[in-house]
């Protein structure tokens, strides 16, 4: 029989003055029955846990098969001495179906034994100590493959003739210390660190070096490997845990170099406060870790081992709970004497010591719920029931106990939130719980969470009680409820009468707005709009939009813009609602508002009739928009725009307008650029744009007066003006900065241009002669004539033996062949009569 194991539980956080009792995570039972008798005479050295049974090897070389209660199970292991070892068993591994077990020992033997069949048994002798063996995890394999770790990693495969074929997978630094096989990936540890081997590609995915502990050797600690799923590897070694994900390389990584198809990504690495004796997954980001404390007792004995639940993140961890375990003989054990097995699907964990095996199981749902309720942890109890289903106590019963508890603590808001979360659409329960808030005068707390949908609409009296309480104690809250709640929940006229009965001047704004909303709900829109305008409330826009009160607002345009320009323009810019002419007429008395309106109107209607007003408005309120407007629009008088720009001294705009006018005005624009703006680059671009000789002459004349800009002019006039004109106007002895560099650059440019023209000319000549040769060859080509060709005119064969006069033939380029006598107009004709194709040189045969 199994006996319960006493444990001490510690939370993962520091203790406070009054330590909060921590919810137990596990319940523990010590395996007894036949196991107890076995351990009285021997000690456990290794174990393998299967969902059906437990297998362990001992110091004396025996291998035992027991059920999970500790009872011996009859098998080949117990019926023959052939499957035992002479010395301690180092490793035990079992296949997924629980049909075969692999063992290895310091006696140099590796045994693959069928538990209930001897068909595929294997006994190998290596003549040296073998520490690890791993069976193929594929359920369909039937132990066709297994791996042995020594000074190399070797895969053994059974062929059709049932003979083993060894394949060396990888050389090892030292020896193989641990192996864990999942699918096509084999994780194994050596003296340097951990590797993952891909059996499908027959290559290693890399080495994860491990930090060597101080004053110790890495191989003196057992490396614990476990696959939590197909692509996630858990590694626990010394006092470090690493979570690794095996992922497929993306297209870029795979194409960039000759690398394996998969890569090992460490997603989390963290240290523990104890040495690791085993680890297994619990939840998505939680581990169960068996630990050996680094500290010693007062008499330098080992402390009790710990079973710890750790929640890990990127590179950090948190101990959720820690249980100290009292195992038989724990004071005499070392870190390598312990191991941890698990059945992940059942959340059962087997803590194995040389003289003891204890099973840790997650506590049952009902026990947890009762414990949580006793300790007033209702939230956790509800979550637990929701996650695992209702047991003996329904979730609604726990929720109602929780609501009473919160009301007792005067945590009214939390109680209201809980009602919303738990009561759902149960109308009867809602009305029953709401009256608990009535007794506390805390209807305001629950108001935000009351159901208001048609699926669960409470009695109107309930909503009116809430509104009356708000009207009495919180007018702003009352207004918010009027806005939020559908008006059909309560009697609107009754609420309007209540406002009049409890009207207070200090809350006039809120109460008037509430009346406006209630009037709107009742369909009295004119009264509602009148109150909104009186209050200067922005909800007037929503009222206008919803009920299309556009005909009423034509004389209220400026007040509406003053109240909210964005929302007002949203209405005013819609031609279907109000005409732009009406808006512009009203805004003439406020030029800034007119500017805002026309600017927005221009964005949505670039052909509106008010564009001429924008020149003056942009010049006054936003000059940055003036020049782009002048460039894209033509709906303004250019002379008026120029006058405004001259008045304001806007030179770039003046240049653009004068340039558009051309002639003398363009010269004026150039003078503005040179003298007023002092921008010679702009002047050059202006001349290039207009490409007018008079403009170039003005620019060149100005350059001779300012030697510092001569080189810029020389650089800019290339391909537009003969540079000799500029050079000829330079006075003898005049100092021109950087003249030499500009002349060299100009000569290089013309030299390059000349080379390009010469090359193009040569190419053209070559092409001409090639084309000429093709034409000559085509003209010299013979044209085939046969009996099948008929004269298009007389429809006879062109080859006639009886009439000699008709044997003179004329062939056109189009392919038609005539008798010479049949050609209309005689041989002087240069066109085929059939297709009117010109043929200036018909051939005669």
TrEMBL record:
Alphabetic keyword roster: Cytoplasmic vesicle, Endosome, Golgi apparatus, Lysosome, Protein transport, Transport
Domain Vps41 beta-propeller: 27-360
Name of the protein: Vacuolar protein sorting-associated protein 41 homolog
PANTHER family, A to Z: VACUOLAR PROTEIN SORTING VPS41 (PTHR12616), VACUOLAR PROTEIN SORTING-ASSOCIATED PROTEIN 41 HOMOLOG (PTHR12616:SF1)
Cellular component, GO annotation: clathrin-coated vesicle; early endosome membrane; Golgi apparatus; HOPS complex; late endosome membrane; lysosomal membrane
Residue stretches making up the Vps41 C-terminal RING finger domain: 791-839
Membrane topology category: Peripheral membrane protein
Family the UniProt entry places it in: Belongs to the VPS41 family.
Region (Disordered): 1-23
PROSITE patterns: CHCR
One of the GO BP terms on file: endosomal vesicle fusion
Domain of life: Eukaryota
Main localization, broad class: membrane
Mapped CHCR repeat ranges: 561-712
SMART domains cross-referenced by the UniProt entry: CLH
Lineage: Eukaryota, Metazoa, Ecdysozoa, Arthropoda, Hexapoda
Family matches, as SUPFAM superfamilies: WD40 repeat-like
Gene3D superfamilies, per database record: Tetratricopeptide repeat domain (1.25.40.10), YVTN repeat-like/Quinoprotein amine dehydrogenase (2.130.10.10)
Protein's job: Plays a role in vesicle-mediated protein trafficking to lysosomal compartments including the endocytic membrane transport pathways.
Subcellular location: Endosome membrane; Late endosome membrane; Early endosome membrane; Lysosome membrane
